[in-house]
Design goal:
69% of the residues lie in helices and 0% in strands. It is mainly alpha-helical. The longest helix is centred in the first third of the chain and has 27 residues. It starts with a helix and ends in a 14-residue tail after the last helix.
Length: 312
């Protein structure tokens, strides 16, 4: 059921045609979930090592996935407490994660001549997310310079280290929140809506920012593409939440998927969400799996309750 939903998911069909990084991020996230759930259930040296490597690859593809990567690794280390030879599985996961990040760390050291974080632009995105006119996912140098006072801009430019320069914006971010907490919370709500429905959907009163190619398509499909996009999105969100509730009996085994649903959107919600075709698409795979589980559970005769109240 989940495979059929993934095959006809219109957002994935359009995004695959674009060959953007969302396709690679989606595959890597799926690999992390498969390996993490497998290693978290039965252990295994090979699965643990590959899980660490896949976490590192996911963090390299998108810096915003770094919080989920760290939380996912900590979750696996905690799960190793109940696994046979768990200490060895935990060691291999850490080893794979570290070795996967070594090439990027060496590159940063050669470029900046000092150790820098994997992602050093967190405070830049948090600061920019407080402006209501931020172009989601399309920030440029002119926009950033326009939002800073001349003296503050000069003090930032005087700092040659990029990581330290972005960290200096933490003070500006805190001052913005103190000056107008209500506007800050309003921006977080806008970012949440832009993350799940797209920035263009907010600007153009419900028009999706993903447009299917109109050449060689039936006229009825061209006329109804907006309804197909938004209808499938709403159905996926509703069935995904319902399926997550129905999967309570497997809450321990599927904990990594729940962490992904919470921690992957968090950086975008706290800063500025990007276009609909970008950061949210990898999460669609998890929601489609939950949606397939919900549809299977709603089918007559397929759902039953065990004596402990969990779904079988």
């Amino acid at each position: 059921m989940a495979g059929l939903l993934a095959a006809i998911h219109p957002f994935w069909i359009v995004n695959t045609a674009e060959l953007s990084d969302g396709v690679l991020a989606t595959f890597l996230l799926a690999l992390v979930l498969v390996l993490g759930c497998r290693a978290g259930q039965v252990g295994g040296a090979f699965a643990s090592l590959l899980f660490g490597l896949s976490l590192a690859a996911l963090a390299m593809v998108r810096a915003a996935f770094l919080p989920f990567v760290l939380v996912g690794l900590l979750w696996f280390l905690w799960r190793c407490r109940s696994l046979k030879m768990g200490w060895f599985c935990a060691f291999l996961a850490i080893l794979g994660f570290g070795n996967g990040l070594v090439p990027w760390s060496v590159r940063n050291f050669q470029l900046f001549a000092e150790t820098v974080p994997i992602a050093d632009s967190a405070f830049l995105h948090l600061w920019a997310g407080n402006f209501p006119d931020v172009p989601h996912g399309q920030m440029d140098d002119a926009f950033l310079r326009d939002k800073l006072a001349p003296d503050r801009l000069q003090s930032l430019l005087d700092e040659p280290n990029q990581a330290k320069r972005y960290a200096m914006l933490a003070q500006d971010w805190v001052e913005q929140i103190k000056a107008d907490p209500g506007e800050h919370l309003s921006q977080r709500l806008r970012s949440a809506l832009a993350f799940f429905f797209g920035e263009k959907w907010l600007r153009d009163t419900g028009r999706s920012d993903l447009q299917a190619p109109t050449s060689h398509l039936p006229s009825w499909l061209v006329q109804n593409r907006q309804a197909i996009f938004l209808g499938s999105l709403l159905a996926m969100l509703f069935l995904g939440g319902l399926g997550w509730r129905f999967s309570f009996g497997w809450r321990k085994e599927s904990r990594l998927a729940t962490l992904a649903v919470i921690w992957i959107p968090l950086p975008y919600l706290l800063s500025h969400a990007e276009a609909l075709s970008g950061p949210r698409l990898p999460l669609d795979g998890i929601l489609l799996c939950y949606s397939g589980f919900a549809l299977a559970s709603l089918w007559p005769g397929t759902r039953r309750v065990s004596g402990q109240g969990d779904w079988d």
